[in-house]
Design goal:
Elements (H helix, E strand, L loop, with lengths): L12 E5 L2 E9 L5 E9 L8 E5 L12 H11 L4 E4 L16 H18 L5 E6 L1 H12 L6 E5 L10 H19 L2 H8 L5 H9 L18 H5 L5 E7 L5 H13 L5 E7 L9 H15 L1
Parallel strand pairs: 4-5, 4-6, 6-7, 7-8, 8-9
Antiparallel strand pairs: 1-2, 2-3, 3-5
Helix pairs in contact: 1-9, 2-3, 4-6
Length: 298
């Protein structure tokens, strides 16, 4: 077994969950360190359908927002697919410093996870997917390994940093303003403020600045590669899903529609779930996301 797919046995355990079987492992990565990971597999028989590597957003663990990725993986495993969720560098159960987990490091982590998934389900086509920044990592991996990856799914994905426009920044600030406004009238918010648990620097950053960095300043969410240019050589299948209630979705969808028109992906499905927010918190929205993903993998 290669270093990329080696398991740390002391951290591995398996449990049955009805129609699926889950196994938590630690994946050794080239250069040292480990990635926290969980396999979801059909309980009745080995999976014979397309497998999927699922990636979380920028800051979160492999569970995804409010366990979105756990629920999605469970539904996919019950449908006959092997799924692997991983923690990216410095997140969750993975080793390393959070600050060192830039976009290119995350793509390297995803590549190690992808190899582990293919080793788990040999001979089965393996796709990649993720929520928000996890979608950027998934497509970044497709651009890096265009011959290996037949399909990619991106949920609530936003344009890569070099393509972020002033309109995007405006929409993000307005979205954050509305979210904070809703919290102002909650008693729990004031309790956190009194206890000093509110990160005021983070609030100011969300309300008043752009994610773009000044000239010469490092942006961990940007890549040393021109990912969007390299994606024009990737001719796999893609699924893009956004929430109809997400203010950032319209310009993001328009951006990736243009990227597809320029040559990215041979086949693409663009979907919008009516009323859904960025993280698909409603149960009905999550059921629709699972339905779309199952249809895409089939």
């Amino acid at each position: 077994m290669s270093a990329a797919t080696a398991l740390t046995s002391a951290m591995a355990f398996a449990m049955p969950f009805g129609a699926e079987r889950r196994e938590a492992v630690a994946l050794a990565v080239p250069g040292g360190g480990t990635l926290g990971a969980t396999f979801h597999e059909p309980a009745a028989a080995p999976a014979t359908k397309t497998s999927l590597l699922l990636l979380p957003g920028w800051s979160g663990p492999r569970t995804g927002p409010a366990e979105l990725l756990v629920q999605l993986a469970s539904r996919l495993a019950a449908g006959g697919h092997t799924v692997l969720r991983i923690d990216l560098h410095g997140r969750g159960d993975s080793s390393g410093a959070f600050e060192a987990g830039d976009l290119d490091r995350m793509i390297a982590d995803a590549s190690a996870g992808y190899d582990a998934l293919r080793a788990r389900a040999p001979g089965v086509p393996a796709a990649v997917g993720g929520i928000c920044s996890g979608g950027n990592v998934a497509l970044g991996l497709a651009s890096l390994r265009p011959k290996d990856i037949p399909a990619a799914a991106a949920f609530s994905i936003l344009p890569y940093q070099p393509a972020r426009s002033k309109d995007f920044d405006r929409r993000r600030r307005w979205k954050n303003i509305k979210q904070y406004a809703g919290k102002v009238f909650r008693l729990e918010t004031w309790k956190k403020l009194v206890r000093g648990e509110v990160n005021m620097d983070r609030v100011k950053k969300n309300l008043g600045t752009t994610e773009k960095k000044a000239a010469g300043e490092r942006n961990p969410k940007d890549s040393a590669r021109d990912i969007e240019k390299e994606l024009l050589a990737w001719k796999g299948r893609a699924l893009f899903v956004w929430g109809g209630g997400d203010e950032e979705a319209p310009p993001a969808r328009a951006h990736f529609e243009k990227l597809h028109a320029a040559g990215c992906a041979a086949q693409v499905r663009f979907e919008t779930i009516a009323g859904a927010n960025h993280n698909f918190y409603n149960r009905g929205w999550r059921e629709e996301l699972a339905r779309l993903t199952l249809s895409f993998l089939a």
